[in-house]
Amino acid sequence: MFDAITRAVVCLALACVGAYVGGRLADRQFALFPEVSGRTADASFAQPRPEYDPHDVVKLQLEALAKASTDKHAIGQCYAFASPQNRQQVGSLDHFEHLLQNPLYRPLLNHSAALVGKALIAKETATVLATVVDRG
Fold first, then answer.
1. Which residues have C-beta within 8 Å of that of residue 86, sequence separation ≥ 6?
2. Tens digit of pLDDT for each residue in 113-124?
3. Using CA atoms, how far apart are residues 47 and 89, in angstroms rounded to an integer?
4. Which residue ranges make up each domain of the chain?
5. Closest CA to 53 of 6, 80, 20
6. What stretches of the chain show up as alpha helix (H) in DSSP?
7. Are 110 and 38 in contact (CB under 8 A)?
8. Which DSSP category does 104 fall into?
9. Do residues 79 and 95 lie in contact, with contact meaning Cβ atoms separated by under 8 Å?
């Protein structure tokens, strides 16, 4: 379980960094949703904005993932906050959903509790420690 939590923390920290940088890019009017194969995050989802700090982004992502079994848009909401670079590397929303089914990341889905720490920001990099309690 420790390895799964550690990998989840790394995953969320990277997503947070991407959202922080992505929000800064949005402020500069760069496209946040490059065309990728398959579905993309719907524009009706909450979007990264410069006023969201990295802590807020990770909290929003975890709140969405906690509802994955009851909200069909939950994973898409999390994907909406992935950085442009992360979305380019991961590809489509369908592939992102598939990655979350990996046993290393599955504890993020429908977790029972999460604690999100304070963001540590250095230049263009933000790191947020998050602890997730798996329902299993």
1. 14, 15, 18
2. 999 999 999 988
3. 19
4. 2-133
5. 20
6. 2-27, 54-66, 74-80, 84-90, 93-100
7. no
8. T
9. no
DSSP state for residue 117 in the 8-state scheme: -
Rama region for 29: left / alpha / beta (φ>0; ψ in -120 to 50; rest): left
Cα gap 44→130, rounded to integer Å: 26
At residue 129, what is the residue type?
A: L
| Tokens of residue 116, six digits | 């999100």
The residues facing 114 across adjacent strands are 132
Angle subtended at Cα 98 by Cα 61 and Cα 39, rounded to the nearest 5 degrees: 75
List the end-to-end C-alpha distance of the chain, in Å, as a whole number.
10
pLDDT digit string (tens) for 18-42?
Answer: 544 444 444 433 334 333 334 555 5
Do residues 57 and 48 lie in contact, with contact meaning Cβ atoms separated by under 8 Å? yes
